[in-house]
UniProtKB/TrEMBL annotation:
Region (Disordered): 1-24
Domain of life the protein comes from: Bacteria
The protein, known as: N-acetyltransferase
PANTHER family the record matches: ACYL-COA (PTHR47017:SF1)
Higher taxonomy: Bacteria, Pseudomonadati, Pseudomonadota, Betaproteobacteria, Burkholderiales
C-alpha cells in the first residue's frame, strides 16, 4: 500500500495496552489495513461482508465504489481521497476479513447531504483547520444503510475505534459517518460519538396503518390517499398525458446506450440550470451499466417520439427496495417532474411488488405523492473537546427542532 499525506498503516493487537484502544475492545488480534485505491480490494470478499451487514445497499457494493474511483468522480482531484479501512481477525494479510469501511479524506463538504458548513466556518474562524476531515459515506448518495461493514458487534466496535484512533493520531479535526443503520448508530453511541438526526421521505407498499396487504394496483394506492391528494395526483398525470407525453420503463440490459446518453444529457442539464456542476461523469454511468445492470431502472419520457426527460431509479432486487436518484428534462412541461420521479416509479413499484421507494434527500412536496417522513442518523467525532461540546449543544437544539418538525409533518399526513 502506498502512502498519502503522511498516513500510517499498522496492525492493532487489542490484547495489549500498547494498542492504545479502550479496554472494552474484545480480546482478539486485529490487523488494520488502509487502502488508497478501492479498486485493489477483492470484490467478492468486500461484497460478502456487505451482505453480512444489517442494512446492505447497492451503493456500497465494490462495483459502485470502484466506478466512482475509476471514473474520476470521487478521487483526490475532486476533494475525495479514498482511505478504505479493512480489519482482519489475525495478523497475516490472508486472515479473514471481518470488518471494513469506505472512508474518504474530504477537503470540502460537497456531495454529502448532511451539512456541516457552519461547523467548518466556526472552527476555521477560531484559527483551526477543519479540512481534511475523515468521512464514512457513499459519495453523492444520501441513502441510509450500513457504513461499518462487520460480521459481528465486536468487529464493528474495533473498526470504529480504529477510525477514531487514526483520526486522532493524524491530527484530523473530525470523523463522520453519514446515514448510518441502527447497528452503526449503537456502536457510535457506545463510543461516545455525537448523534445527529435528519429527515427523508419514503413510500411503503402497504396501507398507511401498516396492517394491510400491499397495494393491488396504483388505483388502490390512490384510493388510500385523502381526496385532495388523490385528486392532485390524478390531475398531474392527466395533464402530462394530455400534453402528449408517454413513458417507457427500461430495466437492466434493456437500457440502451442511446438511453444512457440522453439520461446523462438531462442529468447535466439539471445541474446547469442550478448553476452547478454534476458530480458523476458519463464514464461512471457507463461502468455501472456494465457491472451492476440489474440495479438500474430508467423511465424515458417521450413526446411525439422524441425523448424529453429521463428519471433514473436504483434497485435492490433482493430487498425489493427502489431509490429515486436522478432526473432531467430537455423540454419544460408542467408536472413532468412529478410524473417521472414519483408517479411512474410508484406505479412500477406497486406492479413489481417492491416494498419501499426512498425519495432521497429533503423535499416536503413528496408527502403530497404518498411519501412519509423517516428519520435518518449520522455520527460524529470531534477531536477538540471544547469544539465537541459546542457542537453537542447545537445538536441538542437541532434535535428538538426536528422533533417538532416531524410532529408538524404528521399533521399533514396525506392518507385517509
Amino acid at each position: 500500500m502506498g502512502s498519502n499525506d503522511g498516513l500510517k498503516s499498522e496492525s492493532l493487537d487489542t490484547n495489549g495496552a500498547a494498542a492504545g484502544l479502550p479496554p472494552r475492545v474484545p480480546a482478539a488480534p486485529w490487523r488494520l489495513e488502509l487502502h488508497e485505491d478501492p479498486t485493489t480490494l477483492e470484490a467478492t470478499a468486500w461484497n460478502a461482508l456487505l451482505q453480512a451487514s444489517p442494512q446492505p445497499t447497492p451503493f456500497l457494493r465494490h462495483e459502485f465504489l470502484a466506478a466512482l474511483h475509476r471514473s474520476a468522480s470521487a478521487v483526490p482531484a475532486t476533494g475525495w481521497t479514498p482511505l478504505f479501512f479493512t480489519l482482519r481477525s489475525g495478523t497475516t494479510p490472508d486472515a479473514p476479513l471481518e470488518a471494513a469501511a469506505a472512508l474518504y479524506l474530504k477537503r470540502h463538504s460537497y456531495g454529502e447531504y448532511v451539512f456541516d458548513w457552519a461547523w467548518a466556518d466556526a472552527w476555521q474562524q477560531a484559527g483551526q483547520r477543519y479540512y481534511p476531515k475523515l468521512l464514512g459515506a457513499v459519495p453523492f448518495t444520501p441513502v441510509p444503510g450500513s457504513r461499518l461493514l462487520a460480521r459481528s458487534d465486536a468487529a464493528r466496535a474495533a473498526l470504529l475505534q480504529a477510525i477514531e484512533r487514526f483520526a486522532d493520531e493524524q491530527g484530523l479535526s473530525s470523523a463522520h459517518l453519514l446515514f448510518v443503520d441502527e447497528a452503526d448508530r449503537a456502536a457510535a453511541r457506545a463510543q461516545g460519538w455525537l448523534q445527529r438526526e435528519g429527515v427523508q421521505f419514503h413510500w411503503h407498499n402497504r396501507h398507511h396503518d401498516g396492517q394491510g396487504e400491499p397495494y393491488a394496483d396504483f388505483a388502490d394506492f390512490l384510493a388510500s390517499l385523502n381526496r385532495d391528494k388523490r385528486k392532485k395526483i390524478q390531475q398531474e398525470r392527466r395533464y402530462v398525458r394530455e400534453a402528449g407525453v408517454s413513458f417507457e420503463a427500461l430495466r437492466g440490459t434493456g437500457i440502451r446506450e442511446a438511453d444512457w446518453d440522453h439520461f446523462h444529457a438531462c442529468y447535466v442539464q439539471t445541474y446547469r440550470e442550478h448553476r452547478s456542476s454534476p458530480y458523476l461523469s458519463r464514464a461512471f454511468f457507463a461502468e455501472v451499466a456494465q457491472t451492476l445492470p440489474e440495479h438500474w431502472l430508467l423511465f424515458v419520457a417521450r413526446r411525439g417520439g422524441e425523448r424529453v426527460a429521463s428519471s433514473l431509479v436504483a434497485l435492490d432486487p433482493e430487498q425489493r427496495v427502489a431509490y429515486g436518484r436522478y432526473w432531467g428534462c430537455t423540454q419544460d412541461i408542467p408536472h413532468l417532474h412529478f410524473s417521472a420521479c414519483y408517479h411512474e416509479p410508484l406505479d412500477w413499484c406497486v406492479r413489481e411488488r417492491f416494498r419501499r421507494f426512498e425519495g432521497g434527500a429533503q423535499g416536503e412536496h413528496k408527502m403530497a405523492r404518498g411519501l412519509l417522513p423517516v428519520r435518518t442518523f449520522s455520527a460524529h467525532w470531534l477531536r477538540h473537546p471544547g469544539f465537541a461540546d459546542a457542537v453537542a449543544r447545537f445538536l441538542a437544539q437541532e434535535s428538538a427542532g426536528i422533533e417538532a418538525y416531524v410532529g408538524e409533518l404528521a399533521e399533514r399526513n396525506p392518507f385517509k
